[in-house]
Specification:
Number of helices: 14
Largest sheet: 11 strands, mixed
Distance between the termini: 18 Å
Oligomer: single chain
Radius of gyration: 20 Å
Strand content: 15-25%
Length: about 350
């Protein structure tokens, strides 16, 4: 998708200009998949109260924002990138979109979530999972592993997240990783065949399209593929008792992070924002209030026992995102041209 098309699908909240426009020490522009709805509202209102900062957002899917950030590399508009997944952050970090910055809370991030770079710091994690409606599908019929979604019995029984979203990209990466050489990063023909059958079984979904929970309630589409928090919120809002699948072989976990955009002319304000947002107090309250992803900061996690327990019930797929990130663009191009366009 080109920059012009991207502009049509991204939502700009507020009236603050980006790093390439008129500067204000009391305002920043944040590019984030979390910029719309309760999460964006929480961040904007609390940053104003705590820091005196006016925060505006450009919102969109993780893939869309990644493309936009790469296109703006030499004319930075954003000041902060927040909530992109590890694969997307590695991609823009390697391209020089981000400036090195170590937040005051970085030392609290466990070693397993060390980004391995000064360009961004990870602050949350969430599994991408399958769930099902037991009123429409009993446990014996439900998928047990990701490969099951390729079976004919699941044709048109689930929606696969748009591959322009980081949820969809993480799910794709997890499926392809089952048949990826760990050293070369090459995916076997069996891997591409598996992904093709899964995506062609799925009900098509356009970027930005709202999920229709009525189809889950009715049993028309009894299986849901989404991030864990999205499934939990959807189930609660629609009175559903969904069962999350602890997939054989594990499910892909997305670790999301935050970074300072290189070339920002409001870097000082952006650094204050990053220091504030990743603190244990803000992270814990953010999750309690908005149902967002589980923090990796152990001081924040200690304040969220239910989230910690839910996370412990889902096996984590061992994916080397350092191998995946540089290949994601070519994988997505093949998916768009040869699978979804075929």
């Amino acid at each position: 998708m080109g920059a012009a098309a991207l502009a049509g699908v991204l939502a700009l909240a507020g009236c603050s200009s980006g790093g390439g426009g008129e500067s204000s020490a009391d305002s920043i522009l944040v590019y984030s998949p979390q910029g719309e709805g309760p999460r964006g509202e929480y961040i904007a209102s609390h940053a104003k109260d705590a820091l005196g900062l006016d925060v505006s957002f450009v919102s969109g899917g993780g893939g869309e924002l990644t493309e936009r950030l790469l296109a703006e590399k030499n004319n930075a508009q954003a000041d902060v990138v927040l909530g992109l997944g590890e694969a997307q952050l590695n991609q823009i970090g390697a391209a020089g979109v981000l400036a090195d910055y170590s937040p005051v809370w970085r030392d609290l991030v466990p070693g397993e979530f060390d980004s391995g770079t000064g360009a961004f710091t990870l602050f949350s994690q969430t599994p991408i999972v399958m769930a099902y409606n037991p009123a429409a599908l009993d446990a014996a019929q439900a998928p047990r592993k990701w490969e099951d979604l390729a079976d004919e019995r699941f044709a048109n029984k689930f929606v696969f997240p748009s591959v322009t979203s980081q949820t969809g990209q993480a799910a794709v990466a997890g499926i392809l990783w089952l048949h990826t050489d760990r050293e070369s990063g090459e995916v076997t023909d069996a891997g591409w065949d598996l992904l093709t059958r899964i995506l062609r079984n799925a009900v098509p979904v356009a970027s930005g399209q709202k999920f229709d929970w009525n189809r889950v309630t009715s049993g028309e589409q009894p299986v849901v593929v989404n991030w864990l928090g999205g499934i939990e919120t959807g189930a609660k809002d629609n009175g559903l008792d969904l069962r999350v699948v602890d997939a054989e072989g594990g499910s892909p976990f997305v670790s999301t992070g935050i970074g300072l955009v290189a070339g920002s002319d409001r870097a000082d304000a952006a650094k204050r924002f990053i220091d504030w947002f990743g603190s244990a107090e803000v992270q814990a309250d953010f999750v309690k209030t908005t149902g967002s992803d589980t923090p990796v900061n152990p001081q924040a996690l200690a304040q969220l026992p239910e989230a910690e327990a839910a996370l412990a019930e889902i096996g984590k797929q061992d994916i080397d995102w350092g191998v995946v990130a540089p290949r994601m663009s070519s994988w997505l191009e093949r998916i768009q041209l040869d699978i979804l366009g075929g």
